[in-house]
Amino acid sequence: MDSVKSSALTPSKNKLARTITKVLHIRALTGIAPVHGTQKVKPQEKISDDCTASKSTGSQSESFDSVDEEFQNRVQLQALLAKLFASISSVKAAYAQLQYAQSPYDAEGIQDADHYVVSELKVLSELKQCYLKKQFDPSPETTMLLAEIQEQKSLVGTYDTMGKRLESQARLKGSEITFLREKIEEIKKQNRLLEKSLDQSGPIAVTGDLHLSGVNASHFIKVLGHTIKSVRSFVRMMVDEMKSAGWDVDAAATEVEPDTFYWHNDHRCFALETFVFREMFDSFHQLNFSLPNESLPEKRKQKQFFFARFMELKLRKTKDFLSQNPRSTFAKFCRFKYLRLIHPKMESSLFGNLDQRSLISSGQFPDTTFFSTFAEMARWVWLLHSLAYSIEPEASIFQVRKGSRFSEVYMESVIDEMYLSPDSDPVVAFTVIPGFMIGKTTIQSRVYLSQ
């Protein structure tokens, strides 16, 4: 606030000094203020000569009088213009005060500002009448000086009001930001409670009574939504475990996606998400889904085969299914993906040992929260793969290359538009969630956009 005032008054002081100099110059020209307050006295012997000379130059004196009168009129007109500009500045200051009083609403302030505006408009009207009737101020130099002072005071008042208004708006925006942050935290808590209740309620019948002939893209999209939620739940748990073990999560994200510009530090979690999605969906386009020794039926029976696999697992709890079917294809899939996704050094750092890895390698499954969350994620990925080869036409997976230009047809940004400038041309930094094609239906991939 102080900086605004000081920057506004510095040029005003210079302008005021120039006005005072101009007024003094006018006084000197019109003979109002003699130099040094003294007058020169002519010698006695020259008085008669001067009188004679004045008679011979009478016509010249008349011309000088007309020039002085014209100069005086010009100065008076300048004084009127100075008063006009000063009054206009006062109107601007009054209008700024009126706007400030309106938000937040201040009835008394609005009334005072209204009276201020009306009084200054009356002054403008009076100045107009003075100009039309040629009623000029007899002391133009004093009027110009006072008008300049009034104009500077009005400018200072305007800047002061604008500063108060900006401060008020800043406080209002700060309150809105605080409210939105609290609302976001509340929504996050509600989401965590919902996810917890969903996990405790067991598997969800996302398809109801379904037959092979009725499977379509909408069922695939519904299962994909649950798959994405399960992956993100596992990523959150993994990040929490990493933080508890003293990991530098930002450094881990940089290791996954190096040389990436992030709009916000919190966005580095997307790099960890893309790592998990990339490992879990690796070989999704293959029928055996990373299991080379799996036997598959002939082509004409493949859709029935994958649909039966989908129906077998969709209503079962993951923990119960693995304990009852430790040698099933899905159990092999869980072992294979866990050993690939969780590096031995990472497991040893998080849990202090390799006990879970040893159990899984020996054909058993640990009864831990970490593995249960992983197994639930693996179950949804397995269901999505089974459904992809059950529908007609089959679903195909795709991923966007780094550096590709953004396309709303095939991509969806995982960050808000507020981070992206309207004039910028963002490119894909990495694919977080792959996209899918089912005939002419495109399920957009979700990408992180960067510079």
Automatic annotation (TrEMBL):
Residue ranges annotated as compositionally biased, kind Polar residues, are: 51-64
Signal sequence residues? none
Extract the ranges annotated as region (Disordered). Answer: 39-65
Q: Which InterPro entries match?
A: DUF641_pln, GIL1-like, GIL1_IRKI_C
Q: Locate the GIL1/IRKI C-terminal domain: which residues?
A: 397-448
Q: Domain DUF641 spans what residues?
A: 74-196
What name does the UniProt record give this protein?
DUF641 domain-containing protein
Provenance organism: Citrullus colocynthis
